[in-house]
Design brief:
Six copies of one chain form a homohexamer. Chain A is α+β, with helices and mostly antiparallel strands. Chain A is 37% helix and 27% strand. Chain A has two helices and four strands, in the order βαβββα.
Chain lengths: 62, 62, 62, 62, 62, 62
């Protein structure tokens, strides 16, 4: 029962549907585990809660 | 200092109290580690951010 | 489809069985979600990879 | 800089290559974020450290 | 490409900037990995979603 | 009771001691939470289990 987690920016409902469908199909095909066994979690993060290279994304986007 | 995380649906305050108390008591008894050392995190996820079997929960509930 | 993760010390197979059974029963009862939907992950950590209060556990145990 | 994590069974090196390549391509296309920005982590779990429906996988496989 | 995650209480924007800058500088210096390769995530938790010693933080603060 | 997790490459025991001490001191100072309340976890990943930009690190290092 594998779990796939995507931690990243805010996404639209359609993007979430595509991520869930594509990740599950891909991972099921490669691992030979039934698609029904996969769980996908989408963790949407605010730009002020992500740092890259020492700088908060909310500041870099300015 | 173990950490228990429950990633799942939205819960009421009373359900959270019970989860925290029960998980901590159970884990402390089984591992012989003092209950005071346990941290429990509850990650509440929106149905549009959870996918099962390739479908977003928000669509399955329809 | 909730996921419970216990991050802590090494455990015996019997302790793992009890953790998985107890956490699942407890969480299913409190949340009214079928036990079959729960996944439990046990992340066993080495004492040199856990720090508490600024000190690595492997050093505190000496 | 999104991070994708797959928590599941042991995989071959070729399966890992395919997972990393496919997840990155898929997520980059759907989110319009450059593929170079994606990190993928593969967390391989032992069957005795995964519980499904209250039972450790190592016992179910018997 | 290491990822540092801080799971804790709500923080101000200035505290987040300092956490991201300090963690990245410290980890880059100790590991000899370029600061540009580090990602920091800040997961802000509500007091009712954190349990310590079997009690929800929201109840302890009362 | 905040938890800091570093997910990255293998480190020496001395590097782990420094990471735990520095992260805890820094986070305690910035958040005004006692150092004794902080837990640090170090998740060491194999190069074949980390992908960057669609390529497994174990292949990039060749």
């Amino acid at each position: 029962m594998p779990v796939i987690t995507l931690k990243g920016p805010r996404l639209s409902k359609e993007q979430k549907r595509e991520i869930v469908r594509s990740f599950t199909e891909t991972a099921s095909r490669i691992t030979n585990i039934a698609a029904s066994a996969f769980i996908v979690y989408i963790d949407e993060m605010e730009p002020e809660n992500i740092g890259v290279g020492g700088t908060v994304l909310a500041d870099r986007d300015k």
